[in-house]
Design goal:
ABC1_TM_sf; 2 domains; AAA+_ATPase; 22 helices; ABC transporter transmembrane region fold; transmembrane; Rossmann fold
Length: 609
């Protein structure tokens, strides 16, 4: 219940529905007990017929000990008042009373379920929203260690499990206990001796059910973890389908998926079979007690004469009426245990600390005026440093290019300046202000980003571009496409900028996707542009056209260009050559070519004029 209590805070906005549900459940429990008691006068009319005792004077209440006789006499008096010794009319009256009480019982049940629906679905909505918000707030480093499929499973199936369990716990703490309470109250009024057996039955039943359910949470954990596993395999399969087919690896991934679903099958069977044992076990225990009640109560009716037949039949109905909520409680306890396991997994995300937070005194920076500086920056993802004592200054309007072999730390610079990761040593400053003292939103508003992998979404070209500027006009979109050399191919589509580009831009070529990404950065029109191998996916012709457009775009901007194709950074104001995380050379293109160092070797390895 520890984790489940934390989930209950999501119910606060819907507490009025919880209160209305509790009220309706209270009426349900009350009418459930009264509907059985109302059968007594009907059975008297049926079994005793003309010999039934007729009460002609209103009865006098003589205390709780005589409550049963008072209730029977009062009903008999009321029936006699209206029926005037007509047995058939008396029968109709008592049957009508029973029907009315059962109707009120069921309408109360419907009202209770009606209100709980808003509560359950509201909690489901808010919980998913909170999870998604937390998912996009957590730093990139969090997902380098987590499976995407497991996160998806927590937001979908685990939250759904909590929703079902949420209904169960409200029934557990309100409706079922009240039903048992009112029913036992009615049973005590009818016969306190027989009711002792019920008090013996409930704790015994609860003890046996608890023995069955001890390992349920552990088994539920395994089911949910395995579900996250096969969803991860599915997500990876869809993302890497080209490679899987290209290497004829379908059988490898099918075996992995099949093994995971087999584990899910085995764990689910164990979990559900143990859960399914609760209902028959509690019912068998209940019937056993009913059998004892039949024997003992039958003696009271047939031998001792201390209980009349109609009262005993109604009492047996009440005793059986205890079984249904008792079974409901045992089932709800199982659901709560399952829900608690799901809540633990959900809360693991919600309670994960975001290591990259805005400081309380962080400032909002709206403009870039002088320079971007790196001062003795060192960084490591795990144990090995990927960046060591990196220092550089980029003046406003200038372009700095980073070159070097893979793993030399080039892309790490882009991750650090945007605060996707936080540096451990050194400082990065904008206009003399440490970026850790600037709010993340205002920091990233100053920057445009084009990555090596064209990250596009399954939507129209227009909506993909408007991620950078939601209020952009169609004219601004067209202008950005022209600068990125993308307008011609976009205009050739039947729907133009309203064309859907498919999942991850799958309907576009690699070069087209990259040009849409560049157009998106152009549309944002930031003072600082970060190009992380932005032209690597372009063909030679497109590269030359886009490179010219980028040069025009970067004239009034500070630019950090991470280059794989060295032809794209010839005109950079400063070229920094990185090797194993350190700057080994720096200068302009011609200077570095003359020095005949690492840069010249890299250039010579690439064929260009």
């Amino acid at each position: 219940m520890t984790y489940f209590k934390k989930i209950l805070r999501f119910a606060k906005p819907y507490k009025k529905y919880a209160i209305l549900n509790i009220i309706a459940n209270a009426f349900y429990a009350l009418f459930s007990a009264l509907s059985f008691i109302a059968l007594i006068p009907m059975l008297d009319v049926l079994f005793k017929g003309k010999d039934a005792e007729i009460v002609t004077e209103p009865p006098v209440y003589k205390g709780i000990g005589k409550a049963k006789d008072y209730f029977k006499d009062y009903l008999s008096f009321q029936v006699n008042e209206y029926a005037q010794d007509d047995a058939s009319l008396a029968l109709i009256l008592v049957i009508s009373l029973v029907i009315i009480l059962f109707f009120l019982k069921n309408i109360s049940n419907y009202i209770a379920m009606y209100f709980i629906t808003f509560l359950r679905n509201g909690v489901l909505k808010d919980l998913r929203n909170a999870l998604y918000k937390k998912t996009i707030e957590l730093p990139l480093s969090h997902y380098s260690e987590k499976r995407k499929g497991d996160t998806i499973a927590r937001i979908t199936s685990d939250v759904l499990e909590i929703q079902h369990s949420f209904l169960s716990i409200l029934e557990l703490i309100v409706r079922e206990p009240l039903t048992i309470l009112f029913t036992i109250g009615a049973m005590l009024v009818l016969s306190w001796e027989l009711t002792i057996f019920v008090f013996i039955f409930i704790p015994i039943s609860g003890f046996i059910i608890s023995l069955i359910g001890k390992s349920l949470k552990k088994k539920s954990d395994k089911v949910q973890e395995e579900q996250g596993q096969f969803l991860s395999i599915l997500e990876e399969t869809l993302g890497g389908l080209k490679i899987i087919k290209g290497f004829n690896a379908e059988s490898i991934f099918y075996k992995k998926f099949k093994a995971s679903t087999q584990n899910f099958y085995d764990f689910s069977n164990k979990l559900l079979n143990r859960q399914n044992l609760a209902s028959p076990a509690s019912e068998f225990l209940g019937i056993s007690v009913i059998a004892v009640l039949l024997w003992y109560g039958g003696r009271m009716v047939l031998i001792d004469g201390t209980l009349d037949g109609s009262t005993f039949i109604v009492y047996m109905g009440l005793a059986y009426n205890v079984l249904t909520p008792a079974k409901g409680i045992s089932k709800a306890l199982y659901n709560v245990k399952k829900g608690n396991a799901a809540a633990e997994r959900v809360l693991e995300i919600l309670e994960t600390d975001n290591t990259i937070q805005d400081k309380e005194d962080a400032v909002t920076k709206d403009a870039f005026t002088s320079e971007l500086t790196f001062e003795q920056v060192s960084f490591r993802y795990e144990k090995e440093y990927v960046l060591k004592n990196f220092s550089a200054t980029v003046k406003k309007g200038k372009t700095i290019a980073l070159v070097g072999q893979s793993g030399s730390g080039k892309s790490t610079i882009a991750n650090l300046v945007t605060r996707f990761y936080d540096i451990e040593e050194g400082e990065i400053k904008i206009d003399g202000v440490n970026i850790k003292q600037i709010t993340q939103n205002s920091l990233r508003d100053l920057m445009g980003l084009v990555t090596q992998d064209s990250i596009l979404f399954n939507d129209t070209i227009k909506e993909n571009l408007k991620i950078a500027k939601p209020d952009a006009s169609d004219e601004e979109l067209v202008e950005a496409l022209k600068i990125a050399n993308a307008h011609d191919f976009v205009n050739a589509f039947p729907k133009g900028i309203d064309s859907n580009i498919g999942d991850s831009g799958g309907k576009l070529s690699g070069g087209q996707k990259q040009r849409i990404s560049i157009a998106r950065a152009v549309l944002k029109n930031p003072p600082i542009m970060i190009l992380d191998e932005a032209t690597s996916a372009l063909d030679t012709e497109s590269e030359q056209l886009v490179q010219k457009a980028l040069e025009n775009m970067m004239q009034n901007r500070t630019s950090i260009v991470i280059a794989h194709r060295l032809s794209t950074i010839r005109n950079a104001d400063t070229i920094l050559v990185l090797h194993q995380g350190e700057i080994v050379e720096q200068g302009k293109h011609d200077e570095l070519m003359t020095s005949k160092g690492i840069y010249k070797k890299l250039v010579d390895m690439q064929s260009f004029e």
